[in-house]
Design a protein that fits this description.
This protein has 337 residues and is an alpha/beta fold. It has two domains: 150 residues, Nucleotidyltransferase, domain 5 (2-Layer Sandwich); 167 residues, 2-Layer Sandwich (Nucleotidyltransferase, domain 5), CATH 3.30.420. The protein has twelve helices and ten strands. The strands form two sheets. A five-stranded mixed sheet has the order 3-2-1-4-5, with helices on both faces. A five-stranded mixed sheet has the order 8-7-6-9-10, sandwiched between helices. A hairpin with a 4-residue loop joins strand 1 and strand 2. The longest helix has 27 residues. It is globular. It starts with a strand and ends with a helix.
Length: 337
Amino acid sequence: MIILSIETSCDETAVAVTRGGREVLADEIFSQTDIHALYGGVVPELASRNHAAHIGRLADMAIAKAGVSKRGIDAVAVTNTPGLIGALLVGVNFAKGLAMALSVPLIPVHHIRGHIAANYIAFPKLAPPFLCAIVSGGNSIIADVRGYTDISIIGRTRDDAAGECFDKAARVMGLGYPGGAALDKMAQTGNDGKYALPRPAIEGRPYDMSFSGLKTSVVNIVHNAKQKGEAIDDPSLAASLSAAVSEILVSRVMAAAQEYGHSKIAIAGGVAANSRIRADFVKASEEQGRALYIPPLSLCGDNAAMIGCQGYYEYEAGNTAGMDLNAFAAMDAALNH
């Protein structure tokens, strides 16, 4: 089955062509990073306008690269939740028009389910059940993946996502936007124990997370130092923050794997590219004897290939939509059911 898939949940315009849920024939992405860097973060209106300007071109490029004709497409999959509502609507409306023109099924895909599915592309033999941590700029979730479409949330952030914590800290440290990669690089030469940063916990919810206070602590350290004319050891602050975020994530994921009896752990989302987090997960998994799956950096960020992969399993489960399909900024029910 050949699926053309579309991802426009934030600031990456992406179109892919996949086959059989695991094989990527083409994956085209237009990055808007340089556009939004001027403003220190994603501007929703600009994101939507650029999606509209480039999505048609990317679809033509993906189809040509895949070596298939438009009539050879069996279905169209699209991210319809969660994300920036204007950005999502561009992708959903384009997908609806394409599915109607080609007379093929339209498949709605939850963005978080797509991130989980990135691991199926990277590891063709991976199959549920397993535990998955989805960690990105907008989400920090621990999910019990019992089946390809049978997924439930067992832990999540109560406020900021881990990626937002990294980006906001990087901005106040003068590293620009997006700052996660720059902060990760800076942390390589720092002392991760120099700055005492909090590891918040949620009473009664052992797998839930909170990153707002951690972000605020970094901001306060930087602002207080500037007010007093003191120097900041930027590499050590970056390393201390990376260590704190990693400890929060890794400790919860490994404890959840133990409680839920999972021998396999997968990581997904843009923050999975962080070198400290990757290394700590490798170490913890080896110590507990659990198999660890972390996709390559190219599949950690937003892309349409992961949407096409999950779309295949959604189609197999009968999860298709009509021309009344809408976009939703937040829709957890679609992840759980």
